[in-house]
Protein backbone atom coordinates (compact mmCIF):
# COMPACT_ATOMS: atom_id res chain seq x y z
CA UNK A 1 0.00 0.00 0.00
CA UNK A 2 1.17 3.49 -0.83
CA UNK A 3 1.89 5.50 2.33
CA UNK A 4 -0.01 8.82 2.65
CA UNK A 5 1.37 11.80 0.68
CA UNK A 6 4.04 13.99 2.25
CA UNK A 7 5.95 17.07 1.04
CA UNK A 8 7.72 16.22 -2.21
CA UNK A 9 11.41 15.72 -1.41
CA UNK A 10 14.06 17.82 -3.10
CA UNK A 11 16.22 15.61 -5.29
CA UNK A 12 19.83 15.64 -6.33
CA UNK A 13 21.11 13.47 -9.14
CA UNK A 14 24.83 12.75 -8.88
CA UNK A 15 26.40 11.80 -12.20
CA UNK A 16 24.64 13.37 -15.19
CA UNK A 17 25.49 10.95 -18.01
CA UNK A 18 22.99 8.94 -20.05
CA UNK A 19 21.19 7.74 -16.94
CA UNK A 20 21.59 10.69 -14.58
CA UNK A 21 20.78 13.51 -17.01
CA UNK A 22 17.65 11.68 -18.11
CA UNK A 23 16.59 11.02 -14.53
CA UNK A 24 17.22 14.62 -13.45
CA UNK A 25 15.35 16.12 -16.39
CA UNK A 26 12.37 13.77 -16.16
CA UNK A 27 11.99 14.23 -12.40
CA UNK A 28 11.98 18.01 -12.82
CA UNK A 29 9.34 17.70 -15.56
CA UNK A 30 7.30 15.57 -13.16
CA UNK A 31 7.33 18.49 -10.69
CA UNK A 32 10.29 17.90 -8.36
CA UNK A 33 12.96 20.46 -7.54
CA UNK A 34 16.11 18.82 -8.86
CA UNK A 35 19.82 19.59 -8.69
CA UNK A 36 22.07 17.74 -11.15
CA UNK A 37 25.65 17.21 -9.93
CA UNK A 38 28.69 16.06 -11.89
CA UNK A 39 32.47 16.35 -11.64
CA UNK A 40 32.62 17.13 -15.37
CA UNK A 41 32.43 20.93 -15.55
CA UNK A 42 31.90 21.00 -19.30
CA UNK A 43 28.99 18.60 -19.09
CA UNK A 44 27.39 20.64 -16.31
CA UNK A 45 27.85 23.87 -18.30
CA UNK A 46 26.25 22.32 -21.39
CA UNK A 47 23.29 20.95 -19.46
CA UNK A 48 22.80 24.27 -17.63
CA UNK A 49 22.76 26.08 -20.97
CA UNK A 50 20.02 23.76 -22.26
CA UNK A 51 22.13 21.35 -24.30
CA UNK A 52 21.84 17.58 -23.83
CA UNK A 53 25.43 16.31 -24.31
CA UNK A 54 24.30 13.07 -25.99
CA UNK A 55 21.66 11.87 -28.45
CA UNK A 56 18.38 10.86 -26.85
CA UNK A 57 15.05 11.39 -28.62
CA UNK A 58 12.71 13.78 -26.78
CA UNK A 59 15.20 14.74 -24.08
CA UNK A 60 16.35 18.15 -25.43
CA UNK A 61 12.74 19.42 -25.47
CA UNK A 62 12.22 18.25 -21.88
CA UNK A 63 15.49 19.86 -20.75
CA UNK A 64 14.31 23.21 -22.13
CA UNK A 65 10.97 22.77 -20.40
CA UNK A 66 12.57 21.81 -17.07
CA UNK A 67 15.02 24.72 -17.13
CA UNK A 68 12.25 27.18 -17.97
CA UNK A 69 10.15 25.89 -15.08
CA UNK A 70 12.98 26.83 -12.70
CA UNK A 71 12.83 23.37 -11.13
CA UNK A 72 16.09 22.08 -12.58
CA UNK A 73 19.59 23.39 -11.89
CA UNK A 74 23.08 21.99 -12.25
CA UNK A 75 26.23 22.26 -10.17
CA UNK A 76 29.65 20.75 -9.57
CA UNK A 77 29.44 21.51 -5.84
CA UNK A 78 28.78 18.64 -3.43
CA UNK A 79 28.36 21.16 -0.65
CA UNK A 80 25.45 22.68 -2.54
CA UNK A 81 24.09 19.19 -3.17
CA UNK A 82 24.19 18.29 0.51
CA UNK A 83 22.47 21.51 1.48
CA UNK A 84 19.80 21.15 -1.21
CA UNK A 85 18.74 17.53 -1.27
CA UNK A 86 16.45 15.31 0.77
CA UNK A 87 16.94 12.35 -1.56
CA UNK A 88 20.22 11.94 -3.47
CA UNK A 89 20.35 9.62 -6.48
CA UNK A 90 23.76 8.18 -7.37
CA UNK A 91 23.95 7.70 -11.16
CA UNK A 92 27.70 7.62 -11.82
CA UNK A 93 29.38 5.13 -14.14
CA UNK A 94 30.47 1.61 -13.17
CA UNK A 95 32.55 0.56 -16.18
CA UNK A 96 34.58 -2.62 -16.56
CA UNK A 97 37.98 -2.41 -14.90
CA UNK A 98 40.84 -2.44 -17.40
CA UNK A 99 42.40 -5.89 -17.47
CA UNK A 100 39.64 -7.50 -15.40
CA UNK A 101 35.98 -8.51 -15.68
CA UNK A 102 35.15 -6.77 -12.41
CA UNK A 103 33.21 -3.51 -12.23
CA UNK A 104 35.17 -0.39 -11.43
CA UNK A 105 33.56 1.06 -8.32
CA UNK A 106 35.87 4.06 -7.99
CA UNK A 107 33.20 6.48 -9.15
CA UNK A 108 30.39 5.30 -6.87
CA UNK A 109 32.79 5.30 -3.94
CA UNK A 110 33.99 8.80 -4.85
CA UNK A 111 30.42 10.08 -5.15
CA UNK A 112 29.54 8.81 -1.66
CA UNK A 113 32.81 10.12 -0.22
CA UNK A 114 32.22 13.58 -1.72
CA UNK A 115 28.59 13.82 -0.66
CA UNK A 116 28.57 12.24 2.81
CA UNK A 117 30.43 14.99 4.73
CA UNK A 118 27.85 17.53 3.52
CA UNK A 119 24.79 15.61 4.73
CA UNK A 120 24.00 17.61 7.83
CA UNK A 121 20.31 16.77 7.94
CA UNK A 122 18.12 13.74 7.45
CA UNK A 123 18.79 12.40 3.97
CA UNK A 124 18.35 9.31 1.87
CA UNK A 125 21.06 8.34 -0.60
CA UNK A 126 19.73 6.11 -3.39
CA UNK A 127 22.01 4.10 -5.64
CA UNK A 128 20.82 3.72 -9.23
CA UNK A 129 24.09 2.67 -10.86
CA UNK A 130 24.52 -1.00 -11.73
CA UNK A 131 26.81 -2.57 -9.14
CA UNK A 132 28.00 -5.99 -7.95
CA UNK A 133 25.81 -7.41 -5.18
CA UNK A 134 27.17 -6.38 -1.79
CA UNK A 135 28.20 -2.90 -2.89
CA UNK A 136 25.17 -1.21 -1.29
CA UNK A 137 25.88 -2.75 2.12
CA UNK A 138 29.46 -1.54 1.93
CA UNK A 139 28.44 1.95 0.76
CA UNK A 140 25.88 2.10 3.54
CA UNK A 141 28.68 1.68 6.10
CA UNK A 142 30.87 4.19 4.27
CA UNK A 143 28.06 6.74 4.23
CA UNK A 144 27.45 6.47 7.98
CA UNK A 145 31.16 6.62 8.69
CA UNK A 146 31.73 9.80 6.64
CA UNK A 147 28.53 11.72 7.44
CA UNK A 148 28.81 14.37 10.17
CA UNK A 149 28.40 13.04 13.71
CA UNK A 150 24.73 12.65 14.58
CA UNK A 151 23.55 12.97 10.96
CA UNK A 152 20.59 10.77 10.13
CA UNK A 153 21.51 9.29 6.77
CA UNK A 154 20.52 6.06 5.10
CA UNK A 155 21.21 4.24 1.86
CA UNK A 156 18.70 2.56 -0.45
CA UNK A 157 19.02 0.93 -3.88
CA UNK A 158 16.76 1.59 -6.85
CA UNK A 159 18.24 -0.09 -9.94
CA UNK A 160 17.56 1.53 -13.29
CA UNK A 161 16.25 -0.30 -16.34
CA UNK A 162 16.00 2.48 -18.92
CA UNK A 163 17.02 1.79 -22.50
CA UNK A 164 18.97 4.39 -24.48
CA UNK A 165 16.76 5.52 -27.34
CA UNK A 166 13.64 5.10 -25.16
CA UNK A 167 15.07 6.68 -22.03
CA UNK A 168 12.37 9.31 -21.51
CA UNK A 169 9.49 6.90 -21.79
CA UNK A 170 11.26 4.25 -19.71
CA UNK A 171 11.85 6.83 -16.96
CA UNK A 172 8.37 8.33 -16.99
CA UNK A 173 6.54 5.01 -17.45
CA UNK A 174 8.81 2.19 -16.25
CA UNK A 175 7.63 -1.44 -16.29
CA UNK A 176 8.36 -1.61 -12.57
CA UNK A 177 10.21 0.12 -9.77
CA UNK A 178 12.45 -1.85 -7.45
CA UNK A 179 13.02 -0.35 -4.02
CA UNK A 180 15.82 -1.98 -2.04
CA UNK A 181 15.43 -0.55 1.45
CA UNK A 182 16.51 -1.22 5.01
CA UNK A 183 13.75 0.71 6.80
CA UNK A 184 10.14 1.86 6.53
CA UNK A 185 11.41 5.45 6.46
CA UNK A 186 13.55 4.80 3.38
CA UNK A 187 10.57 3.15 1.71
CA UNK A 188 8.35 6.13 2.49
CA UNK A 189 10.99 8.52 1.06
CA UNK A 190 11.19 6.50 -2.15
CA UNK A 191 7.41 6.48 -2.48
CA UNK A 192 7.47 10.25 -2.07
CA UNK A 193 10.26 10.57 -4.65
CA UNK A 194 8.36 8.55 -7.27
CA UNK A 195 4.76 9.53 -6.49
CA UNK A 196 3.70 10.72 -9.99
CA UNK A 197 5.07 7.52 -11.51
CA UNK A 198 3.45 5.32 -8.86
CA UNK A 199 0.14 7.05 -9.46
CA UNK A 200 0.18 5.57 -12.97
CA UNK A 201 -0.20 2.17 -11.34
CA UNK A 202 3.49 1.22 -11.80
CA UNK A 203 4.21 -2.02 -9.95
CA UNK A 204 6.71 -1.75 -7.09
CA UNK A 205 8.86 -4.50 -5.66
CA UNK A 206 10.03 -3.65 -2.15
CA UNK A 207 12.98 -5.73 -1.14
CA UNK A 208 16.37 -5.71 0.57
CA UNK A 209 19.47 -3.97 -0.77
CA UNK A 210 21.18 -7.08 -2.12
CA UNK A 211 18.13 -8.32 -4.00
CA UNK A 212 17.64 -4.89 -5.56
CA UNK A 213 21.24 -4.90 -6.80
CA UNK A 214 20.80 -8.42 -8.16
CA UNK A 215 17.55 -7.70 -10.03
CA UNK A 216 19.41 -5.44 -12.43
CA UNK A 217 22.24 -7.82 -13.29
CA UNK A 218 19.83 -10.76 -13.44
CA UNK A 219 17.65 -8.86 -15.93
CA UNK A 220 20.61 -7.91 -18.12
CA UNK A 221 21.96 -11.46 -17.96
CA UNK A 222 18.63 -12.83 -19.14
CA UNK A 223 18.44 -10.38 -22.03
CA UNK A 224 22.04 -11.08 -23.08
CA UNK A 225 21.35 -14.81 -22.88
CA UNK A 226 18.30 -14.50 -25.11
CA UNK A 227 20.33 -12.67 -27.76
CA UNK A 228 23.22 -15.14 -27.59
CA UNK A 229 20.78 -18.06 -27.63
CA UNK A 230 19.36 -17.06 -31.00
CA UNK A 231 22.85 -16.29 -32.28
CA UNK A 232 24.00 -19.75 -31.21
CA UNK A 233 21.11 -21.13 -33.27
CA UNK A 234 22.37 -18.99 -36.16
CA UNK A 235 25.74 -20.72 -35.94
CA UNK A 236 24.00 -24.09 -36.24
CA UNK A 237 21.87 -22.84 -39.12
CA UNK A 238 25.00 -21.79 -41.00
CA UNK A 239 26.50 -25.25 -40.61
CA UNK A 240 23.51 -26.92 -42.27
CA UNK A 241 22.30 -24.21 -44.63
CA UNK A 242 19.15 -23.56 -42.58
CA UNK A 243 17.61 -20.11 -42.13
CA UNK A 244 17.88 -18.33 -38.78
CA UNK A 245 15.34 -15.68 -39.77
CA UNK A 246 12.59 -18.24 -40.33
CA UNK A 247 13.67 -20.11 -37.21
CA UNK A 248 13.59 -16.98 -35.05
CA UNK A 249 10.24 -15.89 -36.48
CA UNK A 250 8.80 -19.30 -35.66
CA UNK A 251 10.11 -19.25 -32.09
CA UNK A 252 8.78 -15.73 -31.60
CA UNK A 253 5.25 -16.90 -32.36
CA UNK A 254 5.36 -19.09 -29.25
CA UNK A 255 3.88 -16.94 -26.47
CA UNK A 256 6.10 -18.64 -23.92
CA UNK A 257 9.21 -17.47 -25.77
CA UNK A 258 8.26 -14.17 -27.42
CA UNK A 259 10.15 -12.30 -30.11
CA UNK A 260 11.79 -9.53 -28.12
CA UNK A 261 15.56 -9.81 -27.77
CA UNK A 262 15.37 -12.81 -30.08
CA UNK A 263 16.78 -11.01 -33.12
CA UNK A 264 19.74 -12.79 -34.67
CA UNK A 265 22.67 -10.75 -35.96
CA UNK A 266 25.85 -9.08 -34.87
CA UNK A 267 24.94 -9.29 -31.20
CA UNK A 268 24.95 -6.97 -28.25
CA UNK A 269 27.34 -4.24 -27.14
CA UNK A 270 27.09 -0.91 -25.38
CA UNK A 271 27.94 0.38 -21.94
CA UNK A 272 25.75 -2.12 -20.07
CA UNK A 273 25.13 -5.72 -21.20
CA UNK A 274 28.74 -6.81 -21.90
CA UNK A 275 30.27 -5.30 -18.78
CA UNK A 276 27.30 -6.26 -16.60
CA UNK A 277 27.40 -9.97 -17.44
CA UNK A 278 31.17 -10.04 -16.98
CA UNK A 279 31.00 -8.24 -13.64
CA UNK A 280 28.20 -10.58 -12.52
CA UNK A 281 30.19 -13.70 -13.44
CA UNK A 282 33.20 -12.23 -11.65
CA UNK A 283 31.21 -11.37 -8.52
CA UNK A 284 29.57 -14.80 -8.45
CA UNK A 285 33.05 -16.38 -8.54
CA UNK A 286 34.12 -14.19 -5.62
CA UNK A 287 31.05 -15.39 -3.72
CA UNK A 288 31.87 -19.05 -4.46
CA UNK A 289 28.87 -19.52 -6.76
CA UNK A 290 30.70 -19.00 -10.05
CA UNK A 291 29.31 -22.24 -11.44
CA UNK A 292 25.75 -20.99 -11.13
CA UNK A 293 26.35 -18.35 -13.77
CA UNK A 294 29.23 -19.95 -15.67
CA UNK A 295 26.93 -19.96 -18.72
CA UNK A 296 27.40 -16.17 -18.88
CA UNK A 297 30.97 -16.77 -20.08
CA UNK A 298 29.48 -18.79 -22.95
CA UNK A 299 26.92 -16.04 -23.63
CA UNK A 300 29.81 -13.57 -23.89
CA UNK A 301 31.84 -15.88 -26.17
CA UNK A 302 28.93 -16.51 -28.53
CA UNK A 303 28.41 -12.77 -28.71
CA UNK A 304 32.06 -12.04 -29.49
CA UNK A 305 32.11 -14.74 -32.20
CA UNK A 306 29.36 -12.85 -34.07
CA UNK A 307 31.74 -9.97 -34.66
CA UNK A 308 34.44 -12.22 -36.08
CA UNK A 309 31.90 -14.10 -38.18
CA UNK A 310 30.63 -10.84 -39.69
CA UNK A 311 34.17 -10.03 -40.82
CA UNK A 312 34.41 -13.55 -42.31
CA UNK A 313 31.18 -13.02 -44.20
CA UNK A 314 32.50 -9.79 -45.71
CA UNK A 315 35.70 -11.58 -46.68
CA UNK A 316 33.76 -14.43 -48.32
CA UNK A 317 31.63 -12.01 -50.29
CA UNK A 318 34.77 -10.21 -51.46
CA UNK A 319 36.19 -13.47 -52.77
CA UNK A 320 38.58 -14.05 -49.87
CA UNK A 321 40.38 -10.72 -49.56
CA UNK A 322 39.65 -7.73 -47.37
CA UNK A 323 43.00 -6.07 -48.06
CA UNK A 324 42.51 -3.14 -50.43
CA UNK A 325 38.71 -3.55 -50.68
CA UNK A 326 36.51 -0.48 -50.38
CA UNK A 327 34.12 -1.22 -47.55
CA UNK A 328 31.14 0.97 -46.65
CA UNK A 329 30.15 0.51 -43.01
CA UNK A 330 26.65 1.58 -42.09
CA UNK A 331 26.46 2.28 -38.37
CA UNK A 332 28.82 3.04 -35.50
CA UNK A 333 26.54 3.31 -32.44
CA UNK A 334 26.00 0.13 -30.45
CA UNK A 335 22.33 0.33 -31.37
CA UNK A 336 20.00 2.62 -33.33
CA UNK A 337 18.62 5.84 -31.80
CA UNK A 338 21.75 6.30 -29.72
CA UNK A 339 25.13 7.98 -30.15
CA UNK A 340 26.71 5.63 -27.60
CA UNK A 341 29.75 3.82 -29.00
CA UNK A 342 30.85 2.03 -25.82
CA UNK A 343 31.79 -1.54 -26.85
CA UNK A 344 29.94 -1.01 -30.13
CA UNK A 345 29.93 -4.14 -32.31
CA UNK A 346 29.78 -1.95 -35.43
CA UNK A 347 33.03 -0.14 -34.67
CA UNK A 348 34.68 -3.36 -33.57
CA UNK A 349 33.95 -4.88 -36.99
CA UNK A 350 34.97 -1.69 -38.84
CA UNK A 351 38.27 -1.52 -36.96
CA UNK A 352 39.05 -5.19 -37.55
CA UNK A 353 38.51 -4.75 -41.30
CA UNK A 354 40.59 -1.57 -41.26
CA UNK A 355 43.34 -3.53 -39.49
CA UNK A 356 43.19 -6.15 -42.25
CA UNK A 357 43.90 -3.47 -44.84
CA UNK A 358 40.30 -2.78 -45.89
CA UNK A 359 39.57 0.76 -47.06
CA UNK A 360 36.79 1.27 -44.56
CA UNK A 361 34.45 4.26 -44.49
CA UNK A 362 31.90 4.62 -41.72
CA UNK A 363 28.63 6.53 -41.52
CA UNK A 364 26.22 6.78 -38.59
CA UNK A 365 23.26 9.17 -38.20
CA UNK A 366 24.15 10.16 -34.60
CA UNK A 367 27.43 8.65 -33.44
CA UNK A 368 29.92 10.09 -35.98
CA UNK A 369 31.43 12.67 -33.63
CA UNK A 370 31.94 10.13 -30.86
CA UNK A 371 33.39 7.61 -33.32
CA UNK A 372 35.75 10.18 -34.86
CA UNK A 373 37.02 11.15 -31.43
CA UNK A 374 37.56 7.57 -30.27
CA UNK A 375 38.93 6.12 -33.53
CA UNK A 376 40.51 8.87 -35.61
CA UNK A 377 42.31 6.21 -37.68
CA UNK A 378 39.04 5.27 -39.43
CA UNK A 379 37.57 7.26 -42.32
CA UNK A 380 34.09 8.66 -42.08
CA UNK A 381 31.47 10.02 -44.47
CA UNK A 382 28.44 12.24 -44.32
CA UNK A 383 25.66 9.90 -45.47
CA UNK A 384 24.82 6.28 -46.24
CA UNK A 385 25.29 6.96 -49.95
CA UNK A 386 28.42 9.04 -49.45
CA UNK A 387 30.38 6.21 -47.78
CA UNK A 388 29.11 3.76 -50.41
CA UNK A 389 30.73 5.67 -53.29
CA UNK A 390 32.68 3.09 -55.39
CA UNK A 391 32.30 0.51 -52.59
CA UNK A 392 33.13 -3.12 -53.21
CA UNK A 393 30.75 -4.09 -50.42
CA UNK A 394 28.24 -2.37 -48.14
CA UNK A 395 28.04 -3.71 -44.57
CA UNK A 396 25.05 -2.84 -42.38
CA UNK A 397 26.18 -2.93 -38.75
CA UNK A 398 23.62 -0.87 -36.76
CA UNK A 399 19.93 -1.16 -37.67
CA UNK A 400 19.02 2.51 -38.00
CA UNK A 401 15.70 3.02 -39.84
CA UNK A 402 17.65 5.35 -42.19
CA UNK A 403 19.52 2.36 -43.64
CA UNK A 404 16.39 0.29 -44.11
CA UNK A 405 14.96 3.15 -46.15
CA UNK A 406 17.83 3.30 -48.66
CA UNK A 407 16.60 2.03 -52.02
CA UNK A 408 18.74 -0.78 -53.46
CA UNK A 409 18.39 0.84 -56.91
CA UNK A 410 19.62 4.24 -55.71
CA UNK A 411 22.55 2.59 -53.94
CA UNK A 412 23.38 0.56 -57.04
CA UNK A 413 24.07 3.84 -58.87
CA UNK A 414 26.97 4.74 -56.53
CA UNK A 415 28.68 1.46 -55.57
CA UNK A 416 31.24 -0.41 -57.63
CA UNK A 417 29.87 -3.86 -56.80
CA UNK A 418 26.34 -4.71 -55.73
CA UNK A 419 27.29 -6.67 -52.60
CA UNK A 420 25.70 -6.23 -49.20
CA UNK A 421 26.27 -7.89 -45.83
CA UNK A 422 23.29 -7.36 -43.55
CA UNK A 423 24.73 -7.70 -40.05
CA UNK A 424 21.36 -7.03 -38.42
CA UNK A 425 18.79 -8.79 -40.63
CA UNK A 426 17.42 -5.31 -41.19
CA UNK A 427 17.01 -5.36 -44.98
CA UNK A 428 14.43 -7.16 -47.08
CA UNK A 429 16.61 -9.90 -48.60
CA UNK A 430 14.17 -10.70 -51.42
CA UNK A 431 13.91 -7.06 -52.48
CA UNK A 432 17.69 -6.62 -52.57
CA UNK A 433 18.24 -9.85 -54.48
CA UNK A 434 15.56 -8.88 -57.01
CA UNK A 435 17.42 -5.59 -57.49
CA UNK A 436 20.48 -7.61 -58.49
CA UNK A 437 22.43 -7.51 -55.22
CA UNK A 438 24.47 -10.31 -53.73
CA UNK A 439 22.90 -10.32 -50.26
CA UNK A 440 24.45 -12.13 -47.29
CA UNK A 441 23.42 -12.27 -43.64
CA UNK A 442 24.61 -14.26 -40.63
CA UNK A 443 22.77 -17.56 -40.25
CA UNK A 444 21.15 -17.54 -43.69
CA UNK A 445 22.08 -19.61 -46.69
P1 LIG B 1 27.89 7.82 -18.16
O1 LIG B 1 29.32 7.52 -18.30
O2 LIG B 1 27.13 8.35 -19.34
O3 LIG B 1 27.67 8.85 -16.97
C1 LIG B 1 28.35 8.80 -15.75
C2 LIG B 1 28.53 10.23 -15.25
O4 LIG B 1 29.04 10.20 -13.91
C3 LIG B 1 29.52 11.07 -16.06
O5 LIG B 1 28.91 12.27 -16.47
C4 LIG B 1 30.67 11.32 -15.09
O6 LIG B 1 31.30 12.57 -15.30
C5 LIG B 1 29.93 11.28 -13.77
N1 LIG B 1 30.80 11.05 -12.61
C6 LIG B 1 31.85 10.24 -12.48
N2 LIG B 1 32.35 10.30 -11.25
C7 LIG B 1 31.59 11.16 -10.56
C8 LIG B 1 31.58 11.62 -9.22
N3 LIG B 1 32.48 11.18 -8.35
N4 LIG B 1 30.66 12.52 -8.85
C9 LIG B 1 29.75 12.98 -9.75
N5 LIG B 1 29.69 12.56 -11.01
C10 LIG B 1 30.61 11.67 -11.42
O7 LIG B 1 27.22 6.46 -17.65
P2 LIG B 1 25.69 5.99 -17.77
O8 LIG B 1 25.48 5.27 -19.04
O9 LIG B 1 24.80 7.11 -17.41
O10 LIG B 1 25.65 4.88 -16.63
C11 LIG B 1 25.64 5.22 -15.26
C12 LIG B 1 25.27 3.98 -14.46
O11 LIG B 1 23.94 3.59 -14.79
C13 LIG B 1 26.13 2.75 -14.75
O12 LIG B 1 26.25 2.01 -13.57
C14 LIG B 1 25.30 1.99 -15.76
O13 LIG B 1 25.59 0.61 -15.75
C15 LIG B 1 23.90 2.25 -15.24
N6 LIG B 1 22.84 2.18 -16.25
C16 LIG B 1 22.99 2.77 -17.45
C17 LIG B 1 21.98 2.68 -18.39
C18 LIG B 1 22.12 3.27 -19.78
O14 LIG B 1 21.29 2.97 -20.63
N7 LIG B 1 23.13 4.08 -20.04
C19 LIG B 1 20.79 2.01 -18.07
C20 LIG B 1 20.66 1.46 -16.80
C21 LIG B 1 21.68 1.53 -15.90
Note down, in words, how this protein is organized.
The chain has 445 residues and is of the alpha/beta class. The protein has two domains: 11-207, NAD(P)-binding Rossmann-like Domain (Rossmann fold), CATH 3.40.50.720; 220-441, Rossmann fold (3-Layer(aba) Sandwich), CATH 3.40.50.720. 44% of the residues lie in helices and 13% in strands. The protein contains 19 helices and 14 strands. The protein has helices at 18-29, 41-48, 59-69, 78-84, 106-115, 135-146, 167-172, 184-193, 195-198, 209-240, 244-252, 273-286, 295-317, 345-355, 368-374, 384-387, 401-404, 408-412, 429-434, and strands spanning 11-14, 34-37, 72-75, 87-90, 123-127, 153-157, 177-180, 204-207, 326-330, 359-363, 379-380, 393-396, 419-422, 438-441. It has a six-stranded parallel beta sheet, with helices on both faces. Helix 10 (209-240) packs across helix 12. It is globular, with a radius of gyration of 24 Å. The protein starts with 10 loop residues before the first strand and ends with a strand. Residues 14-20, 37-40, 43, 91-94, 107, 110-111, 114, 129-130, 160, 162, 164, 271-272 line the site of nicotinamide-adenine-dinucleotide (NAD). Nicotinamide-adenine-dinucleotide binds at residues 14-20, 37-40, 43, 91-94, 107, 110-111, 114, 129-130, 160, 162, 164, 271-272. Keywords: NAD, Oxidoreductase.
Characteristic key phrases:
445 residues; alpha/beta; Rossmann fold; 2 domains; six-stranded parallel sheet; 14 strands; 13% strand; globular; binds nicotinamide-adenine-dinucleotide
